[in-house]
Amino acid sequence: MVATYYVGASVVTLRRYLAGKILASIPQLAIALLPVLLVLILLTVALFEKFRPDLLNPPSHSFD
Questions:
Q1: Where does the chain show beta strands of DSSP type E?
Q2: Distances (CA, A) of 10 to 15, 46, 57, 60
Q3: pTM
Q4: Mind listing the pLDDT tens digit for each residue in 36-52?
Q5: What value, to the nearest 5°, has the Cα angle with vertex 7 and ends 4 and 48?
Q6: Contact at 8 Å (CB) between 3 and 43?
Q7: For residue 43, with 0-12 CB atoms within 10 Å meaning exposed, 13-18 middle and 19 or more buried, which class applies?
Q8: How confident is the model at residue 64, as a pLDDT?
């Protein structure tokens, strides 16, 4: 849910920047969009962890 918000907000920000409505330098824009990158990385890691095969079908351990 948070990733969806951040991606939408970044698209709006980039459109406004390209239209000239936002006056910022490239480093300022990069700093503003840094949280978007962080959220997307964390979402990707969370999805990979959620769907790891060893977590979906854990091996049966025998202590015999």
A1: none
A2: 8, 21, 37, 45
A3: 0.60
A4: 889 889 888 888 888 87
A5: 65
A6: yes
A7: middle
A8: 53
